[in-house]
Automatic annotation (TrEMBL):
Cross-referenced InterPro entries: DUF2802 (IPR021244)
Protein name: DNA repair ATPase
Classification lineage: Bacteria, Pseudomonadati, Pseudomonadota, Gammaproteobacteria, Vibrionales
Biased composition (Basic residues): 155-164
Coiled coil spans: 38-93
Keywords: Coiled coil, Membrane, Transmembrane, Transmembrane helix
Organism: Vibrio brasiliensis LMG 20546
Basic and acidic residues: bias regions: 140-154
Region (Disordered): 140-164
Length: 164
């Protein structure tokens, strides 16, 4: 077999040119694919940047809303604390009212001053006043008339001293 034609310069040069041409086409194709891939990655990067900016804006909005809600919660806690204090005050006042209601019922049932002092923890003057009021309400004691002028008071005092 004659292999001389394979070793001749024009054939080698042609084969070499063909290989280089094929290699150039392959490289050109790779470069185009890389360019397309690079452009696609740039677009994706721009899209992700826009999404990131949008998300940052939303995060700022959420932060401002949370700060506002925190202030509102703080205000509501202050109001609740005030209301709890007020409820405690009213309950305390109501306990006093219950105490006087109990004392009133005890007087109606015939309790004396000492029982009111012990059971309802009333001072002696209040217990006596409670007894007097309940007796007047029940009609057991006469209610003196209200007198506005000092002259009438003197006259009433003379009448009372004259009866004795």
């Amino acid at each position: 077999m004659d292999t001389s034609w394979m070793t001749s310069a024009p054939v080698v040069a042609g084969a070499l040119a063909l290989v280089l041409l094929i290699l150039g086409l392959v490289l050109l194709r790779l470069k185009r694919g890389q360019t397309r891939s690079s452009e696609h990655l740039r677009q994706q990067n721009r899209h992700l940047d826009k999404e990131l900016q949008k998300t940052n804006k939303q995060l700022l909005e959420v932060r401002s809303v949370v700060v506002g809600l925190g202030q509102r919660v703080s205000e509501q806690q202050d109001i609740i604390q005030h209301l709890n204090e007020r409820i405690t005050e009213l309950e305390q006042a109501d306990n006093d009212g219950r105490l006087y209601s109990r004392a009133s019922k005890m007087v109606q049932l015939g309790a004396d001053v000492n029982e009111l002092i012990e059971e309802c923890e009333l001072p002696k003057a209040e217990a006596e006043l409670m007894m007097s009021l309940q007796n007047k309400i029940a009609g057991k004691e006469k209610i003196p008339p209200l007198e506005s002028s000092p002259e009438r008071q003197k006259l009433a005092a003379r009448k009372r001293s004259g009866r004795r």
